[in-house]
Design brief:
3 domains; three-stranded antiparallel beta sheet; 220 residues; Beta Polymerase, domain 2; 11 strands; alpha+beta
């Protein structure tokens, strides 16, 4: 169930998340709106949508830290600003797309500014840099450890190096094409993403899959 709410109702839901009265399942944008999927014991899974006013919407991350990266992604993709956000740094946009806000009012852009990692103060601090290129099959990611002896004082992550614009490519795609795109979201989680997409389509269309398909998914 999706409900369009006011800015005040949106903030109330964000505070409910902070109080542990609900769980955040997702935070994303579309043209002119920002959407939040949450689950609470009384109402189950709900989707709230708040209209964007002058490219701004009330920050959820201000109250619930788990929403901060999702808000930063919305800012990169759509150009919408989360009012009152604790962190407004870029997340997906590394300044190499050649365009800003590709899903919103896109505009040409040059190289971005160096990423502003959070400062760490103290004595005898040492930084250990890992990635973004790794030896295995995991997705590229940069991890910056600041340590004091064996104590990790701060760990900062930088992801988005292989952002493929799947959300934009999904628009208007056939189910077969969309299923292939879903399977390419993450190289080490192909089955998980493809399975989740299949279940979403089946639920939306009210389709019951054959028993053989369920067994094939189990094998995968």
């Amino acid at each position: 169930m999706r409900t369009v709410v006011s800015a005040g109702e949106w903030r109330h839901a964000a505070r409910a998340l902070a109080a542990g009265e609900a769980e955040l399942f997702g935070l994303w944008a579309s043209t002119g709106e920002v959407h939040m999927a949450l689950r609470d014991p009384a109402a189950g899974l709900r989707i709230l949508s708040v209209p964007v006013s002058e490219d701004r919407f009330p920050s959820v991350g201000r109250h619930h830290a788990a929403a901060q990266r999702l808000e930063r992604a919305i800012g990169d993709l759509y150009g919408y600003t989360a009012e009152g956000a604790a962190d407004d740094r870029p997340w997906l946009d590394h300044g190499r797309w050649g365009v800003r806000h590709p899903l919103g009012e896109a505009e040409a852009a040059g190289p971005g500014e160096p990423y502003a990692f959070l400062p760490v103060k103290g004595e005898s601090l040492h930084r250990v840099l890992v990635g973004p290129v790794h030896a295995g099959v995991i997705e590229p990611g940069h991890f910056r450890f600041t340590v004091q002896g064996e104590t990790v004082v701060r760990l900062e992550q930088r992801l988005g190096y292989t952002h493929k614009g799947v959300e934009g490519l999904m628009r208007g795609a056939t189910l077969a094409r969309a299923a292939g795109l879903a399977g390419r979201v993450s190289g080490d989680s192909t089955v998980a993403y493809a399975w989740a997409f299949a279940q979403a389509v089946e639920a939306a269309l009210g389709v019951a899959v054959p028993e053989r398909a369920l067994w094939l998914r189990l094998v995968m």
